[in-house]
Design goal:
By secondary structure, the protein is mostly helical. The protein has one domain. Helix content is 84%, strand content 0%. The chain contains 3 helices and no strands. It has helices at 3-17, 20-25, 30-57. The longest helix is centred in the last third of the chain and has 28 residues, at 30-57. It is elongated and about 45 Å long.
Length: 58
């Protein structure tokens, strides 16, 4: 997958992750799920940006 194809995929993955069906599964530990999922998306986006900059310098 190219970088341009990953951005919409990450966007829709975020929509699914922060929507009703998955949020309802973790009702008892909702704060942990929210913080964990949010941190996961921040790390993934940071890695994508870093890899894109690294490839651009080569």
């Amino acid at each position: 997958m190219h970088s341009k194809e990953l951005w919409p995929f990450i966007f829709f993955l975020g929509l699914v992750a922060f929507n009703y069906p998955l949020m309802d599964l973790g009702k008892t530990s909702l704060p942990y799920y929210l913080y964990g999922a949010w941190a996961f998306f921040i790390i993934i986006i940071g890695l994508l940006v870093t890899l894109k900059e690294y490839k651009g310098k080569k």
